[in-house]
Automatic annotation (TrEMBL):
PANTHER family: ENOYL-COA DELTA ISOMERASE 1, MITOCHONDRIAL, ENOYL-COA HYDRATASE-RELATED. It catalyses: (3Z)-dodecenoyl-CoA = (2E)-dodecenoyl-CoA; (3Z)-octenoyl-CoA = (2E)-octenoyl-CoA; (3Z)-decenoyl-CoA = (2E)-decenoyl-CoA; (2E)-tetradecenoyl-CoA = (3Z)-tetradecenoyl-CoA. The keyword Isomerase applies. This is Enoyl-CoA delta isomerase 1, mitochondrial. One of its GO terms (cellular component) is mitochondrial matrix. Its main location: mitochondrion. One of its GO terms (biological process) is fatty acid beta-oxidation. Homotrimer. The gene is ECI1. It comes from the Eukaryota. GO terms for molecular function: delta(3)-delta(2)-enoyl-CoA isomerase activity. Key enzyme of fatty acid beta-oxidation. Able to isomerize both 3-cis (3Z) and 3-trans (3E) double bonds into the 2-trans (2E) form in a range of enoyl-CoA species, with a preference for (3Z)-enoyl-CoAs over (3E)-enoyl-CoAs. The catalytic efficiency of this enzyme is not affected by the fatty acyl chain length. Keywords: Acetylation, Fatty acid metabolism, Isomerase, Lipid metabolism, Mitochondrion, Transit peptide.
């Protein structure tokens, strides 16, 4: 798929003006550092409004592998440099926004591949969570685990009806990483409900997610959701963009600092968990259960 970036001289470059957060000295490995053209995403920018739409397109489930996550991350950093104002993240599928990490790539994988996958997930989360762009997740399908992570890292969530959303890690005997926990708490109206959800692997329907405050609005069609997404981005005037971006950054700075301090530990936990024979056995059974639905 071709990427189309249109230059938007009307808007000031937020990335130049917002002071970058300190990044730890160590460069974390990623298998995604590539200049290849995008394979799994399409990016369009409306030069009239300054709004970009990044569409996830890795059938069948938009499962997140290292290459795909690298593409999403690079698109966001490119948009920051291209004088863009807001970003809508959505899916080309009519059923699945994202099913989270590509579990097929976690199964019987070597350590280097597991490390590449996890570092790509960390890098993508960090970029999306900290971007000065105004971010909206247009959730037009199921958003599970890493898929929900993309939604809660954005600033605003608009969901279509009759889908599922949530973080299901503890169900499979895994702890939710602290950065994902903090991101979830950051958007939920109550810390108590957030704790309850994440400890019990609660998966919401679109309708119950709206009631709980996990999503902000429902829309009956993708077209309506696009209109609502643009309205959210437009609700911030051009004049206030810089102050807005700095305020957003201040709100998120502590979570980002904690992440940087724990980044290696977080990776170590993932690697040791995924290499346990019991975890691999479970993953094999879990993947079979997905196939058995057919
Ligand atoms: C198990 C957890 C392992 C490690 C986590 C480690 C640490 C926690 C850190 C937290 C960070 C994030 C972690 C993750 O994201 S783990 C991923 C967890 N995701 C899931 O459990 C979702 C599983 N999928 C589903 O529940 C359903 O597929 C879904 C999304 C509700 C859609 O349902 P449906 O419309 O009926 O579609 P199918 O189930 O038929 O799926 C279509 C197609 O997609 C394949 N698929 C689905 N999910 C994944 C996946 N996560 N990875 C790879 N492939 C996936 C499925 O097998 C089908 O493929 P096919 O070729 O058979 O068509």
């Amino acid at each position: 798929m071709a990427t189309r970036i249109i230059h938007l001289p009307k808007y000031s470059r937020l990335s130049c003006l917002v002071k970058p957060l300190t990044i730890s000295a160590r460069t974390f490995a990623t298998a995604t550092a590539s200049t290849n053209p995008p394979q799994f995403t399409t990016l369009s920018v409306d030069d009239r409004t300054g709004i970009a739409t990044l569409t996830l397109n890795r059938p069948p489930a938009n499962a997140l592998n290292a290459l795909f996550m690298g593409e999403i991350q690079r698109s966001i950093t490119d948009l920051e440099k291209e004088n863009c104002r807001g970003l809508i993240l959505t899916s080309s599928s009519q059923r699945i926004f994202s099913a989270g990490l590509d579990l097929k790539e976690c199964y019987k994988a070597d350590v280097a591949s597991l490390e590449g996958l996890w570092c790509a997930l960390q890098n993508l989360w960090r970029t999306l969570f900290s971007t000065p762009l105004i971010t909206v997740a247009l959730i037009n399908g199921h958003a599970i685990a890493g898929g929900c992570m993309l939604a809660v890292s954005s600033e605003y969530r608009i969901m279509l009806p009759n889908f599922k959303i949530g973080v299901n890690e503890t169900m499979v005997g895994l702890a939710v990483p602290s950065w994902l926990m903090d991101t979830y708490i950051n958007i939920m109206p109550s810390r108590r409900i957030a704790e309850w959800d994440l400890t019990s692997s609660r998966i919401y329907s679109s309708e119950s997610a709206l009631k709980a405050g996990l999503v902000d609005e429902l829309a009956s069609s993708k077209e309506e959701a696009l209109q609502k997404s643009a309205a959210f981005i437009d609700s911030f005037s051009k004049r206030t963009l810089m102050a807005r971006a700095i305020t957003k950054q201040q709100f998120r700075a502590e979570i980002l600092r904690n992440f940087e301090q724990n980044r290696q530990h977080d990776l170590d936990i993932y690697l040791s968990t995924m290499q346990k024979p019991s975890m691999q056995e479970f993953l094999g059974e879990y993947l079979q259960s997905l196939d058995a639905k057919k």
